[in-house]
Amino acid sequence: MRYETWEALRQDCPLREGVWDRERLKEYLIQCCNVRFARPLEAFFANYREDEVLADLLFNFLLCDDYDGSDCQIGAAQVIRGLDRAVLRKKRALVLQAQKNEVFGKRPFGPKEDLSWL
User: Residue 2 region, left (φ>0) first, then alpha (ψ -120 to 50), else beta?
Assistant: First the structure.
């Protein structure tokens, strides 16, 4: 799916009636890498910073080899970075696993970031 405007992308919102649609979420994550949609998507995901179900889905995309090479993994790392720290503490093992990725863009946090809060 390709979108020309934020309004068009927003029509395919991945959250419907409180349930995350995996395929639509994947598209939103891919579009996070599109400069045109980066800010609106950052604002969208900021509304769900404390959503543990979303966190689980994001880590699934990020750590699953089936998505290797997909921009959805880079998008997932970006969104994970913005999650509430209390949620990330609960997912500590997954954060640390993601931080070991050889591709820096797939790491939620930079190599010099202090993760002592984790």
Answer: beta
Please give the backbone phi and psi of residue 116, each rounded to the nearest 5 degrees, phi first: -65, -20
Mapping DSSP onto H, E and C, the string for the chain reads: CCCCCHHHHHCCCCEECCEECHHHHHHHHHHCCCHHHHHHHHHHHHCCCCCHHHHHHHHHHHHCHHHCCCHHHHHHHHHHHCCCHHHHHHCHHHHHHHHCCCCHHHCCCCCCCCCCCC
How do residues 62-79 score in pLDDT, each as one tens digit? 999 999 989 999 999 999
**Each residue of 7-44: pLDDT tens digit?**
999 999 999 999 999 999 999 999 999 999 999 999 99
d(CA 52, CA 56): 6
